[in-house]
């Protein structure tokens, strides 16, 4: 059992905030969980997270060993862009689901990480990789995963406060005008199809996207897209909203296989660049995920089979 003694300057502070302010790797949310589970005592008694501590009180606590989640570790190859004791950055291939869900209990990125990361710390009291953000199954590219509680809290803070630089490449239909643009709408669950997201007025949360045409063909273009928010399906929904759906997107796009100079077996969307501060050291980190072969093949085919109008 470990303990802290409340100093006079901390008197009146909530118990969970007091514990989080003592330093260490545990977030305030994690302390709240430990308090609920009875692992924290003040003066020998269990207290709520909202308890206002008093000068001289002894706050005792214990951190239980992390439990192993009921997930199968699987030896699935990973394309690792960077890894240290705190985090790992993956170049996710298309068709790999990030997290187990209905219909995908195994064969996911989490299953692969459980096998690869033998040094995982307990995140939220469980021995598991910390999924901070996700990419759709058919979207490829850079994705960061936390390996410790401290990294999870730090990265979550950066994503929540829009401090992470996220830049994508998208192959889209149509002649894109203007060549650069800013898209600002609300995005929420569609009232007509609950499996889809929508830009219907007065529904959802603010979503911000910037785009720039990298290469324009006869009836398709390659865009550089930067998102400032992280709404579900944001890029796909926003590009469809302006009339330029992602090629191969069967949910928000339109079937035009006959017009393709090469196959598109998925939505042509790639998380190309990811930049953030290291959650422990504060070092600026930036990663570029190489464009996958299917994306490059279709890009090249459009260039070879259609007149380039601008580069």
Could you provide a short overview of the structure?
This protein is α+β, with helices and mostly antiparallel strands and 311 residues long. Helices cover 18% and strands 30% of the residues.
Report on this model:
This protein is an alpha+beta fold. The chain has three domains: 2-61, Structural Genomics Hypothetical 15.5 Kd Protein In mrcA-pckA Intergenic Region, Chain A; 67-160, Pseudouridine synthase (2-Layer Sandwich), CATH 3.30.2350.10; 165-305, Pseudouridine synthase. 18% of the residues lie in helices and 30% in strands. The chain has helices at 15-20, 28-36, 109-116, 149-160, 234-241, 293-305; strands at residues 2-5, 40-42, 45-46, 58-61, 67-68, 80-83, 87-92, 122-123, 126-127, 130-131, 140-146, 165-173, 180-189, 197-198, 205-216, 220-227, 269-277, 284-288. Strands 6, 7, 10, 11, 12, 13, 14, 15, 16, 17 and 18 form an eleven-stranded mixed β-sheet that branches. It has a four-stranded antiparallel β-sheet with strand order 1-4-2-3. A three-stranded mixed β-sheet has the order 5-9-8, with no helix packed on it. The longest helix is centred in the last third of the chain and has 13 residues, at 293-305. The radius of gyration is 23 Å and the shape is elongated. The mean pLDDT is 90.
């Amino acid at each position: 059992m470990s303990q802290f003694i409340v100093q006079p300057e901390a008197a009146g502070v909530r118990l969970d905030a007091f514990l989080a302010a003592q330093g260490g790797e545990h977030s305030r949310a994690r302390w709240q969980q430990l308090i609920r589970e009875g692992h924290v005592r003040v003066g020998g008694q269990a207290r709520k997270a909202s308890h206002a501590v008093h000068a001289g009180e002894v706050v005792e606590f214990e951190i239980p060993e992390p439990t192993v989640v009921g997930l199968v570790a699987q030896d699935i190859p990973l394309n690792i862009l960077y890894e240290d004791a705190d985090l790992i950055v993956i170049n996710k291939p298309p068709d790999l689901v990030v997290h187990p869900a209905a219909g995908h209990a195994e064969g996911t990125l989490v299953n692969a990480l459980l096998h690869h990361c033998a040094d995982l710390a307990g995140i939220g009291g469980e021995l598991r990789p910390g999924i901070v953000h996700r990419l759709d199954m058919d979207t490829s590219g850079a994705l960061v995963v936390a390996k410790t509680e401290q990294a999870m809290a730090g990265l979550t803070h950066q994503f929540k406060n829009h401090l992470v630089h996220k830049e994508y490449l998208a192959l889209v239909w149509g002649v894109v005008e203007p060549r650069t643009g800013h898209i600002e709408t609300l995005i929420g669950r569609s009232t007509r199809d609950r499996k889809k997201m929508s830009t219907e007025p007065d529904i959802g949360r603010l979503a911000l996207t910037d785009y720039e045409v990298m290469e324009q063909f006869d009836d398709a273009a390659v865009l550089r897209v930067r998102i400032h928010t992280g709404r579900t399906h944001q890029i796909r929904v926003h590009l469809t909203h302006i009339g330029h759906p992602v090629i191969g997107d069967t949910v928000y796009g339109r079937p035009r296989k006959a017009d393709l100079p090469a196959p598109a077996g998925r939505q042509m969307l790639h998380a190309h660049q990811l930049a953030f501060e290291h959650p422990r050291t504060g070092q600026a980190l930036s990663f570029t995920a190489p464009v996958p072969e299917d994306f490059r093949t279709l890009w090249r085919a459009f260039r070879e089979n259609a007149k380039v109008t601008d580069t």
